Amino acid sequence: MGTEGHFFVIDAVISSVTPSFRRIALVDAMTEYLTFMPTADHKAVKALRNRLHERFWQEKKGFLRFRQPFESLLGIEAQYVDFTTDVVRIGKRSELGDEEFARVYAAMRDFMPWRKGPFEVFGIEIDAEWRSYRKWDRLLPVLPSLQGKVIADIGCNNGYYMFRMAAQQPAVVLGFEPFVQHFFAFTTLNALAGQENLHVEPFGVEDICLFPASFDLIFLMGIIYHRISPVEMLRDLKKAIRPGGTLIVESQAIPGEQPVALFPDKTYAKVPGTYFVPTASCLVNWLLRAGFSSVEIFSQHPMSQEEQRQTAWMTFESYTDFIDPDNPELTIEGYPAPWRVYVKATS
Ligand SMILES: C[S@@+](CC[C@H](N)C(=O)[O-])C[C@H]1O[C@@H](n2cnc3c(N)ncnc32)[C@H](O)[C@@H]1O
Fold first, then answer.
1. pTM of the entire structure?
2. Is there an atom of ligand 1 within 6 Å of 123 CB?
3. What are the backbone dihedrals phi and psi of residue 31, each rounded to the nearest 5 degrees, phi first?
4. Which strand (E) or helix (H) includes residue 286?
5. What residue owns the CA closest to ligand 1's atom 1?
6. What confidence tens digit (pLDDT) does each residue in 238-278 have?
């Protein structure tokens, strides 16, 4: 299906749920967010967006699997939202009849496994693999005010942190999320929640060059150890941040004082696609050499099963399966067990 096909789907949906026109426009996202990013390459962003959306709206099983749950909920809008506590709450049970509630429940199950959370959606408690509020609580004390800010969340997943940001009224938050499951999970949650300043695009961090000097603040959390060229990526991110703006980096790390990075054979803690896992001081050096200033480590801690674990909404292996059962200081591959490190830097 081409871009026209995408709009055809939207048109069809509009005619079936006319009162929800505002939400449909939101779902379609368009690119109004670009008005907050005057220096971005608007033409290239729109062209890329059209190309990627064409892909995501294909009539193919791998895409329909997540698009259909999204479409099944069009027309349902939450009256109540609360993004100020550990649990992102969208809607109350009392807002829906039994049939609508059953539809929401089925759609939420279709988005399993839930990696980030927790959420409560019309009373459905979604306990995700990660207790993501722990990460948010570590960030909050060092964050600048988000009010009126233009923000990117790279690898935003289902948007848990974007909803937490929304509590502070940013001008716009653009989530970069190239995975179809997460893209539609956020799109669905926000069609329910109706936050017009939150947007997601199926972009990757590699597309950040289309946004020169566009953001006041970029979050790069859980990404850097997946990149084959972390310093090059940091340089590109620096160009996308307005002078004086902020980068928040959160990364898997190894313990140690020396500025070194572990480069695993194939997997690290069973995760493929892991390249450089730095110590905290190595991450600082990467940021300094990418041109950032005021680089500050504000938190670091060993990972634990308190923070990442199997739940009823994420039934696959989790942290304890990645760690040597006889020695919690080692991964299953025999590498140092993961820490997490948090750094704030100024562009
Ligand atoms: C480890 S998760 C981190 C999620 C979230 N940022 C957090 O800190 O909890 C990595 C996320 O990045 C997304 N991702 C994968 N490839 C990416 C890319 N090239 N650019 C941006 N994000 C990507 C994944 O789909 C996933 O949602």
1. 0.93
2. no
3. -140, 35
4. helix 280-289
5. 222
6. 999 999 999 999 999 999 999 999 999 999 999 999 999 99
